[in-house]
Amino acid sequence: MTVRTKAKTRFLISTALIVAGVPMASLTHAAEQGIFVPPGGPASIENPEGTTVEGDRSGVYSRTSSLTLDNAGTIRGNGSYDGFDRSPEGGVTVEGGPAIVTNSSLISGAGHGISTVYRFDPATGTLQGLAVGSQVTNTGTIRGEINDGIRLIGGGSITNSGLIEGVSSPPGGATDGISMFAFDDQDLSGQTSIGTITNQAGGTVSGARFAAILSGGGVIDNAGTMTGGAGGIFIQTSDDGRLQVVVSCLRHPGLDPGSMTSPLEWPPLSSQTKCNT
């Protein structure tokens, strides 16, 4: 399924999925999600320059087995909920399988900018982690206003030469530019790290807490700017201890190797390579 958006104002699913030849959802559902991609096979969305996709909860919500999203316009989610009573809300929310997102313009949410989330299985009454190994390439802006700029539960890779930011934290919360960690039910056998971040020259990643936090090891290659209120970069063992810090590597201009602490934490310094293998 391919969805090519064409409206230049608020864009609802009732228009988007007719373009793709898919029966449209109810208008109530349409107001919640700018584009809702239902369960099924691989799907792709192309949002061209000059087009706005906006939802009361999420700009794009995907339950399909894999999503390819190419955004050159604006994607906006006005919801900010983050929890398990209902789906988390923000710019792009990915549930049914991994996503490949290419952004050259603006993705923003009152909650997160982009986030993978759990799927609730009504047959078993349990949460499933299906969106494993997503990929994001950003040359524009990805912003979470009171949540992370990009949160990849299930891990993956991010390449940035634009701006990724988690702007502020709600009371008791902690907002990061980029956050990666494993799903509770994720098979981590044979896996040595949760993900990779490449921040290219001219790229900026910032967070109210950390620019980037990887829970379960990882590789960060930074030639740009990474700043956070508590620190620039934090790499640690996964919260449940299933994924130890096996591969942790930071390539960052001006890094003082003596700045590494335990867990692996680097403040926003400025050239060397520090790897723990």
Characterization of the model:
There is one protein chain. Helix content is 5%, strand content 45%. By secondary structure, it is mostly beta strands. Strand 12 (119-121) and strand 13 (126-128) form a beta hairpin. The longest helix has 7 residues, at 13-19.
Short note summarizing the structure:
The protein is mainly beta and 277 residues long. The chain has helices spanning 13-19, 27-32, and strands at residues 2-4, 33-37, 43-47, 52-55, 58-62, 67-71, 74-77, 90-94, 99-103, 106-109, 112-116, 119-121, 126-128, 134-138, 141-144, 150-153, 156-160, 163-166, 178-181, 195-199, 204-207, 210-215, 218-222, 225-228, 231-236, 248-252, 264-266, 272-276.
Strand content: over 45%
Question: What structural class should be given to the helix and strand makeup?
Answer: mainly beta
Strands of the biggest beta sheet: in what spatial order? 1-3-6-9-14-17-20-23-26-28
Q: Give the radius of gyration.
A: 18 Å
Distance between the termini: 42 Å
Q: Please tally the β strands and state the result.
A: 28
Q: State the order of secondary-structure elements, H for helix, E for strand.
A: EHHEEEEEEEEEEEEEEEEEEEEEEEEEEE
* Principal-axis shape: globular
Number of helices: 2
Helix content: under 10%
Main sheet: strands, sense, barrel: 10 strands, mixed
Uncertain ranges: 6-30, 255-272
Determine the mean pLDDT. Answer: 80
